[in-house]
Amino acid sequence: MSRVESVADSFPRFLARGERRRAEELDELRIRTREFAQQHVVPVALETDAAANADPTYFAWEMVREAGKCGMLSDMVPKPAGGKGGLGASMSLMMEELSAACPGAATIIGAHGLGVLPVLLLGGPSHWDGVLREIVTEAESERPVLFAAALTEPGAGTDMENPELVDLAELNSRAERVDGGYRLYGTKRFISNGDVAKWIATVMPVDQSRPSETSIFCLVNADSDGFSVSRVEHKMGQRACHAAELSYDGVFVPDSMVVGREGDGFPATMMVLTVSRAPVGAIGTGIARGAYDRLLHWLRHDGRADGLLATQPVQLALARMRERIHVGRQAYMDAAMLLDDATMAGALNSSSIKLAGMMPRSLRNSAFVRNKFNSPQTAQKVAEVFSSQVGDEAMSKALGMSSLAKALGGDVGMEVTGMALEIAGFESGDLRPELEKLWRDAKLVQIFEGTNQLNRLEVFSTVCMGETMSITPRVGEVAA
Amino acid sequence: MIPIPSLGMSPGTEADEHEALIAVAQDFARGELKPRSGLLDEQDKASIDWCWSAIGELGFDRAVVPEELGGPGIGLSALLGTVEELATGDAGVAMLVLLSNVALSSLPPNVLVRSEPGERWSVALPLPSLMKRPPHDFVAHWPLDTRATDDGFDVNGELSLVIGAAEARGVAFLSTRTPCALALMPSNGELEITPQGDQLGLRSAVAARLSATNLHFDLADLEPAMLHPLYAASLLHFGVAAIARGIQRAALEMAVGYAVSRKQGGLTIVHYGAVREMISNIAVPLEASCSCQWPAEGGRTKLGSPLIRAALAAKIQNTDDAVAATTDAVQIFGGAGYMVESGIEKLMRDAKYCQLMPQANWRARESLTQEVGHPRPE
Question: Where does residue B44 rank: exposed (0-12), middle (13-18), buried (19+ CB within 10 A)?
Fold first, then answer.
């Protein structure tokens, strides 16, 4: 692997803005992630891919345990809950480093983050000392706690991620209000980590004809009665991370495990996607960098590549790859920093959140405070904080930039891996299967988290036309 | 080791026969290859052997062998049309047919008459050196070392991932060091063939590693065949172009079929401009071009730069189009397209390998530039 470039080298903006200290903090994360990747991911990447090809249920738990020990699983957990409190920038850097080693491994961590996000954004302090702290305490256990986010259904993929389409979607899932909670029915499909997660953040409508207004986001424990995994898919690539079909047959979810209010489900989905798309762009960019690094190493050191580096077509191709990687990086970091510094900072640093964070844990866990945190009034308060501190306009801008980064990153990954494979060809020894795997892995980035086409339509609306989409929780509504 | 003389090309197939042949290939692709494409992609031996046996019964395995030598003797355009049709069912099987025919077209008559129907052959082409001519010496590593001796040359080394070479009767190794083609057969102890099934695409054309140790060829035994390796190389490039076109056609059919049935937002996805754009991206190159034809003039094909240029250009254009088309086709399917079960991601992998066969497109572009800049005499 090439020497670790500093964050300041990769992202000149940090120097231009005088943010050397922040760059150094992110450097520490980048170095730590790269060391983890070199030690625990690269050595098993090909064999995990082959094992999962033969048996799609194969899962590299040992690698995930090591990821837990290195803090990869708890980076996003808020500091009061024992985590690092990282968000867009740190998640994105982690994704680039992990993807350069194995995109499937990166997606395990990324999908885990996707499942944590609804809790982080709308859950408020009520979950800090519950499910979020559990991620930290179980990080080094035999089975670290993983999360998943269940959005897609057999009849609704793109539909679930677009405000204009969701109310027209053919949904099979529904949440039925019952005493003390909800019962969930239906099927979710292609859910990353779906069969290995302990907690599945699930979105379902109460009224199937009005999902945008009536959906809930709730945490389903994988051991719940009525919850089952129907199948694990055989994928083209990124096989280390499973895509599972999940079946909900009257699964009971108590009110305490509903994140936000009834009706917050779809806005929460859009906010989750806004936050997660920059890191997904980083996955695509990381895949490209992984291919580029491997190819350059081969060209420099392998006798089979003799003379190729001296030819202009190869030199031009390498330059083009480097250029694309650079552009992909700037796009995802632009989006991540916009989110961290401008969009989310106000909400996540609001006085009420800070106050809850300053409380001793023993006080937070007292029955009185827990009831307060779990009350509809707190859920309403969280929605009001988002409305006042963030708002649809800022969130729409952030959605536009993160969608741009994701679509671009997906294309960068495909383009660079394709070029690398062409240069290496069949006579490249051990390099060929590695590049072929990265090429297969790259395709998924153009598809998940909203297809590139959907992403670009959202760029058109929010960046080209400056439109504001309705994607933050509504205020002034009666909480469930 | 058998030296290979120059071989006259087969006369063209009449138009009616051509159409009938294409219809047979089409039926076989739809009825037998397509339903088995999953198993073929898994390199299921029974499926591959069954398909090859059926190919043999149809005569496709040795289609270009002249009638006087016991073959069907179809024309080269008919062969190209056939492999394009077969590729709509399974590109790997189409590649096996192409490679066998290219190899057989290179064998001398005394080897051909001894070859049995149903045998498979593959081809190894040292293309960087094949196309390398002064003043632009393209420096490239060719792992099979050919060293001149006083009376001939020695061959040593290994070639990896020779597509279709696993369980092959032999490999036609085309060389320009002394222009000739060599039939190397493991049965003669000349060649070691080790199956290498870990290929990304064209998986039913199981690849192998070839190892040669101190093979010696006497010049006196070889008939000069300056033009012959170029015929075979050109046919191979045209054939890969035809296979790529077949893959594109399969991708278009599958993508349109999905787009008119899958609903999102209450409408079939073909209603959305983004999907229509991708469909047109797949359709335009197909509509704008036509099936590959072997360029012929008065019944005789002239060798030289026009033929080679046409072959290289067809291969570059069609394979690049195929990769773009299949990438869009998977995209149209969305998440379902990424799953092996859909059958569409296989087309993307097959197309990618066509970009690399028989040489990567960036090398083919270099070769094309040489032919454009320094035409060789006809």
Answer: middle
pLDDT digits (tens, 9 = 90+) for A43-75: 999 999 999 999 999 999 999 999 999 999 999
Task: Tell me the chain A residues in contact with residue B140 when contact means C-beta distances shorter than 8 Å.
Answer: 307-308
Q: Which residue of B has its CA nearest to A411?
A: B327
Q: In terms of DSSP bridges, do strands A181-192 and A243-254 run parallel, antiparallel, or are they unpaired?
A: antiparallel
Please tell me the number of Cα atoms within 13 Å of A69 on its side-chain side.
14
Cα(A189)–Cα(A107) distance, rounded to whole angstroms? Answer: 16
B89 Cβ neighbours under 8 A, 6+ residues apart: B28, B29, B30, B32, B33, B34, B37, B250
Quick check: A128 and A169 in contact, CB under 8 A? no
What are the E-state strand segments in B205-294?
A: 207-218, 263-264, 267-268
pLDDT digits (tens, 9 = 90+) for B296-347: 644 455 656 788 889 999 999 999 999 999 999 999 999 999 999 999 999 9
* Cβ neighbours of A438 (radius 10 Å): 28
Task: Report residue A2's pLDDT band, with 50, 70 and 90 as the boundaries.
Answer: low
Q: Give the Cα separation of A175 and A167 in Å (integer).
A: 16
Is beta strand A147-150 parallel, antiparallel or unpaired with respect to A199-205?
parallel
Q: Which residues of A touch B275 (CB under 8 A)?
A: 453
Rounded to the nearest angstrom, the minimum Cα separation between B322 and chain A is: 13
User: Which chain B residue's Cα is nearest to A441?
Assistant: B338
Q: Residue B169: how many CB atoms within 10 A of its CB? A: 18
Looking at residue B10, its pLDDT comes to 45
d(CA A229, CA A252): 16
Q: Provide the phi-psi class of B160: left if phi over 0, else alpha when psi is between -120 and 50, else beta.
A: beta
Q: What are phi and psi of B158, to 5 degrees?
A: -135, 145
Contact A337, A88 (CB under 8 A): yes
**Cα separation of B159 and B150, whole Å?**
25
Residue B37 contacts A, CB cutoff 8 Å: no
Nearest residue to A452 (alpha-carbon basis) of A419, A398, A409: A409
Q: Which residues contact A313 (CB under 8 A, 6 or more apart)?
A: B362, B365, B366
Backbone angles phi, psi at B43, to 5 degrees: 60, 35
Cα separation, A30 vs A52, whole angstroms? 28
Residues linked to residue B334 through DSSP beta bridges, in sequence order: none
Distances (CA, A) of B309 to B12, B123, B299, B362, B373: 21, 20, 20, 14, 11
Predicted pLDDT at B149: 77
Ramachandran assignment for A305, one of left (phi > 0), alpha (psi -120 to 50 degrees), beta (any other): alpha
Q: Please state, in angstroms and rounded to a whole number, the distance separating the CA atoms of residues A280 and A402.
A: 9
> Which residue has tokens 């677009």?
A162
- Predicted TM-score (pTM) of the model is 0.93
Does an H or E element contain B170, and which? strand B170-175
Q: How many CA atoms lie within 13 A of B291 on its CB side?
A: 19
Q: Which of residues 312-371 of A touch B (CB under 8 A)?
A: 313-314, 317
Residue with tokens 């970091």: A333
Cα separation, B294 vs B296, whole angstroms: 6
ipTM: 0.94
Distance CA B9, CA A380 (A): 82
DSSP annotation string for A15-68: HHTT-HHHHHHHHHHHHHHHHHIIIIIHHHHHHHHHHHHH-TT---HHHHHHHH
CB contacts < 8 A (A, B): 119
Q: Which of residues 278-337 of B touch A (CB under 8 A)?
A: 278, 323, 327, 330-331, 334-335, 337
Does the beta carbon of A190 lie under 8 angstroms from any beta carbon of chain B?
yes
**Residue from A427, A434, A451, A452 to probe the interface with B (highest B Cβ count within 10 Å):** A427
Nearest to A235 among B327, B340, B366 (CB): B340
